[in-house]
Amino acid sequence: MTTRQKILITGASSGLGEGMAREFAARGRSLALAARRLDRLEALADELRPSASQVAVSALDVTDFDAVPVVFGELRDELGGLDRVIVNAGLGKGAPIGTGKAHANIETVQTNLVGALAQAEAAMEIFRAQNYGYLVLVSSISGIRGLPKAQTAYSASKAGVTAIGQGLQAELVNSPITVSVVAPGYIETDINRGVKTALMADTESGVAAMVTAIEAEKGYSPVPAWPWTPIAAALKYLPGFVTRRMI
């Protein structure tokens, strides 16, 4: 399999994005890192430059939909092309629907779904012009089945991300452009802070599982594979009266 040397990662200033940047830098890849917090990106870039082949950074709010293709284009030019784009930027706000906190749910959907679509549009425009590339959409196990209460909007947003990936996969079969959906379960990051579960993976092992799945370039990968592959199958296929007890 060809090494994807030039990698753009959004949401790279913290959490899984930062972890993946560190892992790919350790493998000597060229990185384009984007996030809202430029100061954190610049500090991270300084740490990674001794091991990475190249590091470029740019401030980006993925809900500034006009800015997304501009920033992607600038980062592509700085790296001299893009082999892989990891659509990772995300938000975990939420409240039960109808409880007066619609702003939190709307912000989550705008960031996770509409922002992901804007990033996919920008990445695919670059890949179509190059006639090659690899798009990675970071979804979630939460996108398999609608979750209750404060997680309903988040679940819906990630289901939408998975659907974007599936649609592109159907379109691009036998194409030089590859699309994968990676679906993390519980991995210890800021977005999961406060969640109490025995299924929580520590950040290091969770990031390692993410990178392994991305490098494998499968169509859909629950991560870590254990226990989330069987859990994902159960959530998808078991009847609602059973899965409601699981979620």
Name some characteristics of this structure:
alpha/beta, 8 helices, 247 residues, 7-stranded parallel β-sheet
Give a description of the structure:
There is one protein chain. By secondary structure, the chain is α/β, with parallel strands linked by helices. It has 8 helices and 7 strands. It has a 7-stranded parallel sheet with strand order 3-2-1-4-5-6-7, sandwiched between helices. The longest helix has 29 residues, at 102-130.
The outline comes out as globular
Number of strands: 7
Radius of gyration, whole Å: 17 Å
* Main beta sheet: 7 strands, parallel
Strand content: 15-25%
Number of helices: 8
- The end-to-end distance, rounded to whole angstroms, is 38 Å
**Structural class assignment:** alpha/beta
Strand order of the largest sheet: 3-2-1-4-5-6-7
Average pLDDT figure? 94
Secondary-structure element string: EHEHEHEHEHEHEHH
Which blocks of ≥5 consecutive residues have pLDDT under 50? none
Percent range of helical residues? 40-55%
